[in-house]
Amino acid sequence: MSQLESIIWHILGYSAMPFIILSGFATVAAVSLWLLSLGKDKNID
In 5-28, which positions are buried (b, 16+ CB within 10 angstroms) versus exposed (e)? Predict the structure, then answer.
């Protein structure tokens, strides 16, 4: 692998990391809120 290819792959890898971490956090938050909403009392008088 040439030096240019190595630099490109490093840039792609490091730019993908925040997206992977944030999308994982958002997915866990969404699933957690959905699970919590299942047990919520839906009858509000």
Answer: eeeeeeeeeeeeeeeeeeeeeeee
**Average pLDDT of adjacent 10-residue blocks, the chain of 45 residues:** 92 92 96 88 62
- H helices of the chain, where? 3-38
Cα(19)–Cα(24) distance, rounded to whole angstroms?
A: 8
Residue 26 has which token pair? Answer: 């958002």
Distance CA 11, CA 26 (A): 24
